[in-house]
TrEMBL record:
Protein name (Swiss-Prot/TrEMBL): Dimethyl sulfoxide/trimethylamine N-oxide reductase
Biological source species: Bartonella choladocola
GO molecular function per UniProt: electron transfer activity; molybdenum ion binding; molybdopterin cofactor binding; trimethylamine-N-oxide reductase (cytochrome c) activity
Lineage, top ranks: Bacteria, Pseudomonadati, Pseudomonadota, Alphaproteobacteria, Hyphomicrobiales
GO biological process, one term: anaerobic respiration
Cofactor section: Mo-bis(molybdopterin guanine dinucleotide)
Gene Ontology annotations for the cellular component aspect, listed alphabetically: outer membrane-bounded periplasmic space
InterPro entries documented for this protein: Asp_de-COase-like_dom_sf, BisC, CT_DMSOR/BSOR/TMAOR, Molybdopterin_N, MoPterin_dinucl-bd_dom, Mopterin_OxRdtase, Mopterin_OxRdtase_prok_CS, Prok_Mopterin_Oxidored
Sites where the protein binds Mo-bis(molybdopterin guanine dinucleotide): W157, R367, N485, H489, R532, D562, N790
EC number: 1.7.2.3, 1.8.5.3
Length: 834
């Protein structure tokens, strides 16, 4: 493993000049023809193979069929140390080698001994047998319960690549063979992405931000509100480009004032020498209201902006100044809730109004009870400041994700495999015909809000509200997952374990023995993306290159690609041709490239023929126009709000929403509102004294890479780390390196203690994504030996509007663990598998 060129260790930034990267394989305008320039690696004569990952572009060196070295791409401005874990994911002892079936399920049939899930008693079967079992069970369940008996929402991450997109491939198989229940939304921005279309007319959370260059040149105060790009921009949904690190370095060089509002003094705050304000978690809306009240009281708000570009400020104002409920939301009022002193809150209002202020908000502030309010209130606050659409002012909701703010290249959109023809609605109530407008004849829901699967299993037939509509939770008997790790991402693990007992069958495709695979009935081993060919774009926002993702090594053991597995299942069900469309891996990859080539030509650029591209071992680069480098979010709206009206009913920013008013939800009023979450630090009804920040991990992508050697970089006593303030540690007799038990009414986990003053007293940090390792899976609320934080979080939804997850809502107590320490067992094959 060679990382000599980069030497980065978080939280430090890589100080080498990011901008020096030489042009490698670059695509130029048609006028000058197609041009390929060889990169330094190729010139040296060393045979390295290029591929890509969520952690960046890299070159792999293979010796005698084994990947022995991974080198980050020369043009990556800030390679992440996580790339080191990637190689180990191929060879780690947590690799799934063969198709496996849970013994009780195999011998006694679907639904047998549900308490035995997770005990690791698996039997190895042949691929032939495994495919028969899956195809047979799909047929049985659909015949008995209809297509709504099968859940294929399969939420979660996957590997990069336009072809081996496992979740899409799963849906394609399920659609082709007879339908399924899908999922709505995601865990990242579940609340914000439902409320923001009512407020600004788009999802906003995944929109491009004002460019870093514009921020550097215009912003005077840069606020990171629950936002930690130094950590979270390490990865990409597509291949990570790490452009945000260039932007952050520029911000630092420019000496821009940085304020970080976060219970943790983040890596970003430390790198940028930011001013750290640490409110109580889950109280951001109150703090924002305190700032808003000061703006109004001191006449610092921008009346012209509010009049011209927003609707409903008058109604919100009645709430803000207390006309509506008798409580003015003053800085003093806010201070009591959020714990930041009133003077500071007032000063923030003055400073924000006086200077060009950009508020970069992360997403944890909406991943909590009533999370819809946070982003709505932030838009409202920025509307009062009146800087939205001005260079360097307003808000950006994606600076921390996939390097938002990195200018977008003029490139074609690379297509990918689709989930096939539109789903047929098959589950109409008896006696109804398709297209009937009778309300009794509306199809039973075939999509549920993504985090409500557990609720559906526990309460089939229950009607829940969702963004103005009613959804009847379906009766699900079979759950199929390919891409994603529900036994990591879902909140309230013990409730989930109980819900899973209702299932007949749980099928999982993965390459590692995750907790989900361990709780499955049928486990199918898939290839990693380093054992197959694919193609992908670089940078979700940058879209700067097309990257050949070339197979590095042959599939290990009996692993097969998701595509091949699904094609075989379709064959058993008589649908192979429909599924594959008669094409293999390389046919599909070429077809995506060729379509991009045509689009590119229409844009006046000439891409090389596929074979030249594929054999070049280089990424194909696209130009970035100056206009993109100078991009200002909402500049067009500001310039002409009629011509560039927003997608809201009024065409303006909706501080009061009539649409939401019509929904009459008691937990999501029609204007931004402070509402107590069900539990919080020092909250009125809170039972436990410490809040858990279940942040995104520094050396993992959720649970991905937890099963690799990278764990040695952070695990404490072999357990997931728990950061705790010295005061809280002392009060509990805890010191660095201790193993402790964190617990509440929902569950209990072991963690390794790290005492640090970069965390607010009253808050502990246990990152999400630690692998669930139950001591005794048959025992209710059993101890998790490794430290999966979702044993402790609540599964309550944000509100009736978004029904999103509240991963950041959890209070706990923690104590030194004095019993005999159970060894961690989750990072090897299940013991009884054979
Ligand atoms: P990952 O660990 O990325 O987590 O939850 P998610 O389920 O996405 O899971 C991806 C899985 O896909 C891994 O097991 C990986 O091995 C597998 N995989 C990768 N490539 C392939 C492939 O080609 N084929 C197949 N079949 N499998 C593959 C993440 C979710 O967690 C998210 S997105 C968020 S934002 C939430 N965050 C929090 C949080 O902040 N706090 C808490 N408490 N909980 C959270 N949960 C959520
Ligand atoms: P988090 O780490 O959960 O990241 O991006 P997101 O912004 O949600 O939280 C960001 C910051 O919010 C943390 O510093 C945390 O302390 C702070 N915070 C927590 N609660 C509160 C609060 O109540 N108020 C305030 N003011 N701050 C709070 C997540 C994004 O990251 C997503 S959704 C995904 S899918 C990706 N996941 C990963 C990952 O797993 N690992 C890495 N390294 N990078 C990722 N990037 C992406």
């Amino acid at each position: 493993m060679s990382f000599d060129k980069t030497k980065i260790t978080l939280p430090e930034m890589n100080r080498r000049s990011f901008l020096k990267s030489s042009a490698m394989l670059t695509m130029v305008g048609a006028a000058s023809g197609s041009l390929l320039t060889r990169g330094a690696q190729a010139q040296s004569g060393t045979k390295l193979t290029m591929s890509g990952s969520h952690w960046g572009v890299f070159r792999g060196r293979v010796d005698q069929g084994r990947l022995v070295e991974v080198t980050p791409w020369e043009q990556d401005p800030h390679p992440t140390p996580m790339l080191q874990g990637m190689m180990d994911s191929i060879y780690s002892p947590s690799r799934i080698k063969y198709p496996m079936v849970r013994r009780a399920w195999l011998e006694q049939g679907p639904g047998a001994d549900p308490e035995g899930r997770g005990t690791g008693d698996f039997v190895r079967v042949s691929w032939e047998k495994a495919i028969d079992l899956v195809a047979g069970e799909l047929t049985r369940v659909r015949k008995k319960y209809g297509s709504n008996g099968v859940f294929g929402g399969s939420y979660g991450w996957k590997s990069v690549g336009k072809f081996h997109n496992c979740r899409t491939l799963l849906r394609r198989m399920l659609k082709t063979t007879g339908g399924f229940v899908n999922s709505l939304g995601d865990y990242s921005t579940g609340a914000a992405q439902v409320i923001l279309p009512h407020v600004v007319g788009s999802l906003e959370v995944y929109e491009q931000c004002t460019s870093w260059d514009v921020v550097r040149d215009n912003t005077k105060t840069l606020v990171f509100w629950g936002c930690n790009p130094v950590n979270t921009d390490q990865i990409g949904w597509l291949i990570a480009d790490h452009g945000a690190f260039v932007g952050l370095e520029e911000v630092k060089k420019a000496g821009i004032r940085v304020i970080c509002i976060d219970p943790i003094k983040t890596e970003t705050c430390q790198y940028l020498d930011g001013e750290w304000l640490a409110p109580r978690p889950q109280t951001d809306v109150a703090m924002m209201l305190g700032i808003a009240h000061t703006l109004y009281a001191e006449k610092l708000h921008d009346e012209d902006f509010l009049k011209k570009y927003t609707v409903g400020f008058d109604k919100f104002l009645a709430y803000l100044i207390g006309k509506e409920d008798g409580t003015p939301k003053t800085a003093e009022w806010a201070s009591k809730i959020c714990g930041i002193d009133a003077g500071t809150i007032k000063q923030l209002a003055r400073d924000f109004a006086k200077n060009r202020t950009m508020i970069a908000a992360g997403w944890s502030i909406q991943r909590q009870h009533h999370g819809e309010q946070a982003h709505w209130m932030l838009v409202t606050l920025c509307s009062m400041l009146g800087q939205i659409g001005l260079p360097g002012g307003g808000f950006g909701f994606s600076y921390h994700y996939c390097s938002g703010g990195t200018p977008t290249a003029t490139s074609p959109i690379l297509g990918g495999i689709t989930d096939g023809p539109a789903a047929e609605v098959t589950d109409l109530p008896a006696g109804c015909h398709p297209g009937s407008t009778e309300s009794a004849c509306q199809p039973k829901s075939n999509a549920i809000p993504v985090c409500r699967l557990v609720e559906a299993l526990l309460h089939p037939g229950r009607t829940i509200k969702y963004n103005g509509s009613d959804i009847v939770l379906p009766e699900i008997h079979m759950v199929y997952w390919a891409g994603g790790n529900p036994f990591s991402h879902q909140q309230n693990r013990n409730e989930m374990v109980e819900a899973w007992k209702k299932l007949d069958t749980f099928v999982v495709h993965d390459f590692q023995w995750t907790a989900s695979a361990r709780h499955a009935d049928i486990v199918l081993p898939v290839t990693t993306s380093y054992e197959r060919n694919d193609i992908e774009q670089l940078g979700d926002y940058a879209l700067s290159h097309i990257v050949p993702m070339k197979k590095l090594v042959e599939p290990m053991y009996e692993a097969r690609s998701d595509f091949d597995i699904f094609a075989d299942i379709c064959e058993r069900l008589g649908k192979r041709e429909e599924y594959t469309e008669g094409m293999n891996e390389m046919d599909w990859i070429k077809s995506f490239y060729e379509a991009a080539r045509l689009e590119s030509r229409a844009k006046g650029m000439e891409m090389p023929v596929f074979d030249t591209f594929w054999q070049s071992e280089e990424a194909l680069g696209f130009p970035v126009k100056d206009a993109q480098k100078q991009f200002v979010r909402y500049a067009d709206f500001r310039e002409d709000p009629l011509l560039n009206a927003l997608g809201t009913p009024s065409g303006k920013i909706e501080i009061y929403s009539l649409n939401i008013e019509k929904m009459h939800y008691d937990d999501c009023p029609p204007h931004p509102t402070w509402m107590e979450p069900i539990e919080r630090l020092d909250g009125p009804t809170t039972k436990y004294p410490l809040h858990i920040a279940s942040n995104h991990p520094i050396y993992r992508l959720h649970s991905q890479l937890c099963g690799t050697k990278l764990r040695e970089k952070y695990a404490i006593g072999g357990r997931e780390p728990c950061w705790i303030n010295p005061k809280d540690a002392e009060a509990r007799g805890l010191k660095d390196g201790d193993i402790a038990r964190a617990y509440n009414d929902r569950g209990q986990i072991l963690v390794g203690i790290k005492v640090t003053d970069v965390i607010r007293p009253g808050v502990i940090r246990i990152n999400e994504g630690g692998w669930y390792d139950p001591v005794n899976p048959r025992e209710a609320k059993t101890l998790c030996r490794y430290g999966d934080v979702n044993n402790l979080t609540t599964s309550v939804s944000t509100s009736k509007l978004a029904q999103a997850n509240c991963g950041q809502t959890a209070v706990v107590e923690i104590e030194k663990f004095t019993g005999s320490l159970p060894p961690v067992e989750v990072f090897i094959e299940p013991r009884k598998a054979g």
